[in-house]
Amino acid sequence: MAKHKRGVNTICTHTGEVRDKQFNGAVSPIYMSTSYAYEDVEVKRYPRYFNTPNQEMLCKKIAALEHAEEALIFGSGMAAVSTAMLAFLQKGDHVVLQQTLYGGTINFVTKEFDKYGIEYSFTKGWETKDFEKKIKDNTKLLYVETPSNPLLTITDLKKVAKLAKNHNLITMIDNTFASPINQNPIDLGIDIVIHSATKYLGGHSDILAGAIAASSEHIDRIWNTGINLGGSLSDFTVWMLERSMKTLGLRVERQNKNAMKMAKYLSKHKEVSNVYYPGLKTHPGHEIAKSQMKGFGGMLSFELKKGIDSEKFVKSLKLIKASMSLAGVESTILSPTKTSHALLTPKNRAKQGIKDGLLRFSVGIEEPRDLIEDIEQAIKRCG
Ligand SMILES: *Cc1c(COP(=O)(O)O)cnc(C)c1O
Does a structural domain hold residue 1? Predict the structure, then answer.
């Protein structure tokens, strides 16, 4: 028995390794079989049943990182989101969702739920009282995202969890932006934790995957829906993800530091009007973030002063890539108005606080001075 719990980087590197019993290699072998024996076996293995050797072992790593009893890995973040919600909601049920959510999740709910006869309400803001106001007799689930996309709003997880317990509701969180390194919602009373593993868990912008961590009881229920929806991840990508996750702790630690430096630099810049980063004391959610996060993450947003055209600024960057998605080791930047939130009307965007010049910055692991130099030269070109 170990004297103390494994540290986070030890879990990242070692938990859920598949032993190479034949050759004693240092890394997990990869089992590509979609066909396994069914006679005289304890488990009937099949990739869509989430139980191939590589799938099962990687789930242990994710569960350990999220302080959960069990985990499941999916073919994408949206496969995880949709399977989790459909496992717990049926015809006539109602779900309360935070207004500031990932665009794909909003799309899933608004385009699919009517067909299933599932009712939904979006909160007005991201405070506990906003969730409470929308709870009805048939509400079954509260769905949270914190820090949120793109303005990094912070929701108090302990309070939302308590509210849910009082009303006998299930709670789910999209923990993608924080990563398990910075935030462990299960410790705060949240039931089900979802990740787009395409982002921090993968971390190199080359893997599409999702994950869910929860109690064995909840995972069992999600598994039963998951095998019908068929959103499993193929073993080659499972293996890639295991490899990537070995450096998760190191990457995120560096991204936390870099983002803090960039947030401080940008907030002092005379051509920048607003910086949204939960690590800044000026951020309205700073105190809550400090109490429930171990690091403030690698994501931030900012607005340039009126005279500077944000489109031209983005095009003038040489090192920081104008690119969709986020959380890679390389820094990327995007305009939510033109990408993730393009389908919303300008009025609806304004309601969410998203101005046209807003830029979302995913800070990578580069040297901060190189990122600063890039931003300086881009602003000069726009001046
Ligand atoms: C990207 C993302 C998703 C969706 O994940 P995919 O892997 O693209 O399906 C869900 N939630 C958040 C917060 C995301 O950033």
Answer: no
Nearest CA to ligand 1 atom 12: 102
Domain end residue (candidates: 245, 266, 299): 245
How would you list the strands of the sheet with 332-334, edge to edge? 272-276, 299-304, 358-362, 332-334, 321-322
| Beta sheet of 170-174, edge-to-edge order | 70-74, 210-214, 192-196, 170-174, 139-145, 94-97, 119-122
Helix, strand, coil percent content, the chain, rounded in steps of 5: 40, 15, 45
What is the domain count for the chain? 2
pTM over 0.70: yes
The CATH number assigned to the domain holding 15 equals 3.40.640.10
Provide the pLDDT for residue 5: 87
* Cα-to-centroid distance, 192 and ligand 1 (Å): 16
Last residue of a domain, one of 214, 245, 276: 245
Supply the DSSP string of 7-65, one letter for each residue.
PHHHHHHHTTPPP-TTT--SS------S----TT-SS---GGGT-SHHHHHHHHHHHHH
- Distance CA(201)–CA(181), nearest Å, equals 10
The answer to whether position 132 is within a domain reads yes
Choose the weakest-confidence range: 26-40, 89-103, 128-142, 344-358.
344-358
Q: Which burial class, exposed, middle or buried, applies to 93 when counting CB atoms under 10 A from its CB (0-12, 13-18, 19+)?
A: middle
CA 143 to ligand 1 center in whole angstroms: 15
